[in-house]
Amino acid sequence: MANPVQAVRKLLDRWSTQQESALGQMTGRKTARHRIAGFLKSERVEAKFFLLALAPFVPVMVSDQIGWSRGALWHTWWWLSVIWALAIIGMCFASYWRAFRRSLRRKS
Question: For residue 52, which of 19, 15, 18, 79 has the smallest C-alpha distance?
Fold first, then answer.
């Protein structure tokens, strides 16, 4: 089986590239149809990032609904989930930043 860290990294790299491409299409094309297509693709990729960021919170929510006590394991999992979510959202916004810088260079 492949290394899961490499698989996630490859997935995030692909999504970042798709996000930058969609944002470039949204800012660099002339017709409204191409701009709207870029916006829609950007929204889909952003939703994927957000779902991946929120995935570790599912066990936390389920354990609260079941009524399990909040012990050390729960708090550890909570903080690992927060760190995971911040890292994934940071990668999403990094692609926004790169696309923004690229659009500024293109207009100069």
Answer: 15
